[in-house]
Amino acid sequence: MAASRGTKKKKEKKSVYEGKVFIQATFNNTIVTITDLMGNTVSWASSGQLDFRGAKKSTPFAAQSVTETAAQKAMQAGLREVHVYVKGPGIGRESAIRQLGVMGITVKSISDVTPIPHNGCRPRKTRRI
Model-level pTM? Predict the structure, then answer.
């Protein structure tokens, strides 16, 4: 029986000119995901991935570094224009958006998609003494 030699397919390089940037800025971490307009992920980075630990993960500098790392990967795929979606109350929100402009990426729109509860959880029963 002859062994068939499999030929490896070359991985296609994505060519993305316009995309979306999702910035999730919590009190403990900052995660940046860059997608194309259909929602397929092009690149992503988090502050934990860049060896920030503990309280340093949620700083504006960490958010800058995370955005720079994700944007460099995406720019290699041809990204030039983005729509930004920010979620969460973290302090790295603004510095992450500023870093996109510094990298030379055109920011077309900025949307805050932080979930806000309409009525919240059921309150505890009243205390009787």
Answer: 0.82
